[in-house]
Design a protein that fits this description.
nine-stranded mixed beta sheet; eight-stranded parallel β-barrel; 612 residues; alpha/beta; globular
Length: 612
Amino acid sequence: MERCTLNTEKETMKQKIKKWLLLALLPALHVSICGCGNESASVVADDNVTFSVSLDADRSAGRMPRVLKPSAFTSWNEEIVSDFIDDAGKSEIGMVRLSIETELLNSRNEQDFLAKIRSDSATAKACKEVVQEGGIVLMQISGTPKWLRQPSNRSPYFWQGTPTDMDAWYRIVQEMAKHFKENVGLNDQIWYEFSNEPDNKGEWQWHGTAEAFMLTYAATANAVKSIDPQAKVGAAGVLSYAGSFTDGGEPVIKLLIEYCGAHHTPLDFVSWHFFGVPILINTHIVPTIKQWLRENGFDEDLAQIVSEYNPLSNYPLSYDPKPAPPNLKDGEVGGAAIGKMLYELYRGGIYGCSLSLGDTGRVENGDFQNGFGAKTHKHLNNIKKPMYHVAMMYASPYFGRNMVQTTFKTVHPYDIDPPLYALSGINDERTKLSLVIGNYIEAPVAIAMHHLTAHKGRTMSEIDSWGGQQALTDYYDGRIALDGLTTDAPTQADIISAQPYFDRYQKLLTTTHRTLLEIKNFDADAYMVSRYLVDATYSNAYFHYWANHNDIDAAVKNQELEMIERFEVKSLADIKEHFFRPFSQSLIVIEKIAPPLKTQERTSASSAPPLR
């Protein structure tokens, strides 16, 4: 079988040389999934970086949950909802977070607020578009109108706080719910989320007591339910699931659950934001919130929503990748982190989520947004970042709506958080099987700290007393002595015990991984295989922007998700191997062909239909 082509689009020789040079600077990547060639020995160090993925088309994992469907946080820019829906293939979107914050903050009195919200055609249009495509509107209710703020909190920076007239607040929430029910036509398709990052110690924070927050939430929830009992209402959009109103205080979500349980206040969901380490979702966050729910008389499976998420601002690598764009969040690491987050949210049973698309107020000179948002400014260039493509990989019709049980294995004893994840789906006709495989390697120091906290009982405050993650990294990398962290013998023994975990992930960061695919009960005479790739160069606008000396035109020209190969095979055994460089994300679509194509064994990627 002949070698699969990287890219068959017409290119000038200058463009080809430039691309070859860029690829030569990166770790080796064997892009074929057909098992052709003998490159595996040269790119894989040993079997310790070999993983296996197995899926059985006859073993259902249920319908695709909402958390995997394309979802977005747009809030202050409702006009990008249409573009988002188009990119998602205009079918089965998830949750879109919108906001009435502008109407609240800019209103002069109760009548002015009602006039503003009723005349807001952009928000009404966005709501209708979301519902039409099967989505849920998450309506953010944050911001206290100036005419309802405490006298000391009337600066623009005091956005959230205790209303001076709770009856007036109750009335305007009622009128808001009535508007969305009667004028826009929403019932159970709208979920109202009270507050936004009240634990954020800055302009967003809640100005008032914890008790006042709970009373304001209760007024909000009861007002919504009095108008529309079918609508869902919850809180609190916290910056961190453990975030508190004051330093060292009880978590806002915990207090909210306790209050609602004690006062029988409606609570249909809790919401939190996530900008952290993906492994924490199922080791710490989800179990903790479920415990709080159980302790206060709620069903532990009460809906949890991640109402705003993006990858880490700074990835704490302990090696220096060459070449490395300075903003890893906008590049390959950001895309890989989004894929891993979605996988962990799916495993955790999270109801829904919304990816931060972009912030139109923070763009300078048409440039990238320093990591925030999955797209750049709509009116300047509207560039899709790697994280956007990865979040869209589950968009219909390329990923089947029926989930298929998928397992993967690693035999290495130190893989606390295996770098590989895989999810697959099949269409209703059982003619198209799709597989998303992601490769996200957690920072070695994060894995070492997880071992110390989860298995050795150490606390983060203890780790901080040793010098924090930087000191641990310096020790594991051999730059400082163990005595520089602590002289306590038992503590030193625990720190030493995490060394193998650190070393394992240090190796994974720079090693291409060999993945073996096993697909059962998807029989046909022949198959057409298409593969799309997001990594350091493919579908990576920021990489091309950086590699071309901050040339925004290069980013615009290299922003679409790329199909890197498309070919026919006679047997599923011909697609058994897949080689992954670190932080690569692939969508593999396998379609049955009946009868097999006789005239052409392979078709080029450029002749294949585009993936939107």
